[in-house]
Predict the structure.
Amino acid sequence: MDISPYILLLGVSIESDNRGVTGLALGAMKVLLSSFGTSNFAIFQISSEERINKQDLFIDGNHIRVKTYYFSKRSVLRCILEFYIFKFFKKQPVSELSKLILNSWKVFDTNEGDSFSDIYGYKRIIRHFLDSFMVLLSGKDLTFLPQTIGPFNTFIGKTLAKYILKRLKTIYLRDTYGETILRRLKVPYDVTTDMAVYLSGQKVDYDIPPETVGININGLLYYQSYGEIVGNFNNYKILILKLIDAIIDKGFNVLLIPHTYNTLTPSNEDDLIAIKEIVKEKENNQLKYVNNDYNAAELKFLISQLAFFIGSRMHSCIASLSTSVPAVGLGYSIKFKGTFKVFNQEGSVININKIDAHKVDSVIAKILEKIKDKGQSREELFRINSNRKNLIVE
């Protein structure tokens, strides 16, 4: 290890297709730099190819040095075994992953914002359980940065969550949903703001006409890729198509914005691919879409230029709300309601989980009403954002 002291971050990435996850990473680094004064960070990722990627970032004028360590599943199992051997036989761990954890100054986990849950399937919760388990087994303190905890609908999810949650140093929630779970376990916590709120927008040269409404199309819902999502959003495409027509009919321009996408090698939940399919069906001069490979900060800037925003990726909504752009969240999980509540906008979340075709028109009517009242929402968001204090992590 050639950087010291460094903070180890779990459950984040600065190379992910998901701009929400990268926004979490950058916002977390900004907060931790302010809290502890270090600009050295290490990120742990699981990959079939073991390697190290070094990057120099500049966040609000601060030079940040980041090393992303990619380790295989075999290395994770070896690390756990080494920590058990050390615990019982006092033999020092020698693997690179073990040393990465042991040599870290502090360790924090965001669990990708909402992945400490079984909503995305058992593989995801096991993956994030192992991250936390390794750190705790090493004897290091572990803090959960602001995130959504739960839901846990399976026996394995509840069991793994209970084990980790009762052993953490500190837990920060970004919404109030997890309070019930933590109170039941008698685990202390604090409710604060999502880390992506602290990410500043980065200006890009992109012309957005006045009175433009932005819509984020969620490829996960559009293609119903995996986990509890499958089969619950059969009418999502119908909703989006009719919503675009309704907004254009009201005289607005519409800009479709991806938030999880890869312009070269798209995944099976790529927002941009879904957007291009929508655009093929809706040829209209008032309909445009973002096709550039923008990072999280650049997308946040674009969203900040809109008159109104409608998002079904939660971090796209956070980019809107934290820049005082009124928004409607098309929610597919409990995380939307809690996050919008932090901005005093919980009435702007519409649950579209298992939405029936005959309810699509009523949902669109609610959205149009919110657009009509956008001035009032903007004033409230200005008030909240101007009074927001920077989070200091302990």
Remarks:
- The chain has two domains: 7-198, 212-386.
- Residues 19-36 form the longest helix (18 residues).
